[in-house]
């Protein structure tokens, strides 16, 4: 796909969007090298068709240089998009797309979750120093670094209190992460992390057998739905533990609707941490907007046996849990009396038997990951407990 320039409309001399009533849903590939494997492309198309149905719009297809039919447009980007590109294609507000827009590219990565190690550490242009202190109590101990030397210093400081998890900032689903136990393994791992000087790397306190919660919110049409959930891990065809799906409990409204529920203290803390993190993003980065937000929160003991809870990262794009999010939205749209929905999504490597009522978003042999099935379903009834 031809890349956009800062102020160049996508549909230039070929035509421009019109003013039809219903409008059209379009997928938008931000970067063909990210989130564009076969299963991701097909899954995104399936979700785009379902979102079009939710809004009474027509699914049109991917963005290209040809003009779309006349009518309002709704975009589903493959990744979080930089603000100038969102403006150029016609995204002006949350209701124009499913995802998020950020003022600077680094804001969309794990890098914003932690501060730089010290005043001499290098950071990207437009790095907001005041952000990390605002979320310090909402995340695990850690640092972000944008040079191998800075990363070594930060990692050695963290190793004094236990093992350290090294995380490439653009990897998803736990891929590419390494737990290091000493300076030797730290240096060896950092030497293999690509593009540290450009993208950065995160060094973070490692937890022992943590559970990972998801806290999020989606806004589609007139619906606002917030949720909490628990992630599941599964083994891929290489025997590695990777993201295997999520079980979500969703309610109508914002985070305050979740807070009004009768919740366990640990779950309430995770929701509060995600809400504080999100509010800090909104206030620290002018131009940020998102109609889909998801925050991963890890909870568990560290090497010293201290129980910890903290936001690991953010996602403002179509993600692993979006199948369950869309399933919940469909129930809330079709059943106005429903106040709570429990929705699940699964990613299964190999053959599987589908449960009754499952909605399949992908089933096939992906050239990169092998045989994979991705599906979602909802419980027929759910109590408000």
The N- and C-terminal alpha carbons lie at a distance of 47 Å
Supply the helix-strand structural class: alpha+beta
As a percent range, the share of helical residues equals 10-25%
Q: Low-confidence runs (pLDDT<50, min 5 residues)?
A: 1-20
Roughly how many Å is the radius of gyration?
21 Å
The pLDDT mean sits at 91
Order of helices and strands: EHEEEHEHEHEEHHEEEEHHEEEHEEE
Structure overview:
The chain has 385 residues and is of the alpha+beta class. The protein has nine helices and 18 strands. The chain has helices spanning 38-55, 83-89, 131-134, 148-159, 183-191, 196-199, 255-259, 265-284, 322-334, and strands at residues 24-28, 58-62, 73-77, 81-82, 100-102, 142-145, 164-168, 178-180, 201-205, 211-220, 223-235, 241-252, 289-290, 292-301, 307-315, 340-349, 359-366, 370-378. It has an eight-stranded antiparallel sheet, with helices on both faces. The protein has a four-stranded antiparallel sheet with strand order 6-9-7-8. A three-stranded parallel sheet has the order 2-1-3, covered by helices on one side. Strand 17 and strand 18 form a beta hairpin. Helix 1 (38-55) packs parallel to helix 9 and helix 4 (148-159) packs antiparallel against helix 5. The longest helix has 20 residues, at 265-284. The chain is globular and about 60 Å long. Mean pLDDT is 91; it is low at 1-20.
């Amino acid at each position: 796909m031809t890349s956009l320039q800062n102020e160049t409309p996508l549909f230039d001399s070929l035509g421009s969007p019109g003013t039809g009533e219903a409008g059209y849903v379009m997928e938008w590939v931000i970067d063909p090298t990210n989130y564009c494997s076969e299963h991701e492309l097909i899954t995104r198309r399936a979700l785009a068709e379902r979102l079009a149905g939710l809004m009474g719009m027509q699914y049109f297809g991917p963005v290209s240089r040809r003009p779309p039919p006349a009518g309002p447009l709704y975009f589903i980007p493959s990744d979080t998009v930089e603000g100038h590109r969102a403006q150029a294609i016609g995204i002006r507000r949350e209701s124009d797309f499913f995802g998020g827009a950020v003022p600077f590219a680094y804001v969309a990565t794990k890098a914003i979750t932690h501060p730089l190690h010290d005043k001499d550490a290098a950071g990207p242009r437009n790095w907001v120093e005041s952000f990390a202190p605002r979320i310090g109590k909402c995340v695990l101990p850690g640092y972000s670094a944008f040079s191998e030397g800075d990363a070594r210093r930060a990692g050695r400081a963290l190793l004094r209190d236990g093992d350290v998890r090294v995380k490439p900032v653009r990897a998803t689903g736990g891929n590419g992460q390494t737990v290091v136990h000493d300076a030797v393994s730290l240096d060896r791992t950092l030497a293999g992390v690509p593009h540290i000087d450009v993208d950065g790397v995160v060094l973070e306190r490692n937890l022992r057998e943590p559970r990972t919660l998801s806290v999020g919110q989606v806004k589609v049409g007139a619906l606002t739905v917030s949720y909490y959930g628990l992630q599941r891990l599964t083994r891929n065809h290489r025997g590695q533990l990777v993201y295997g799906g999520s079980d979500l409990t969703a309610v109508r409204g914002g985070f305050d609707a979740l807070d009004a529920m009768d919740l366990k203290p640990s779950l309430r803390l995770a929701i509060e941490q995600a809400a504080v993190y999100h509010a800090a993003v909104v206030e620290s980065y002018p131009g940020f907007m998102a109609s889909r937000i998801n925050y991963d929160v890890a909870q568990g003991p560290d090497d010293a046996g201290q129980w910890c809870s903290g936001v690991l990262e953010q996602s403002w794009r179509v993600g692993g849990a979006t199948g369950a999010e869309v399933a919940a939205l469909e129930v809330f749209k079709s059943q106005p009396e429903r106040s709570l929905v429990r929705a699940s999504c699964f990613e299964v490597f190999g053959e599987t038997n589908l449960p009754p009522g499952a909605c399949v978003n992908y089933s096939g042999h992906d050239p990169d990951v092998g045989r994979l099935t991705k599906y979602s379903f909802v419980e027929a009834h759910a109590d408000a407990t």
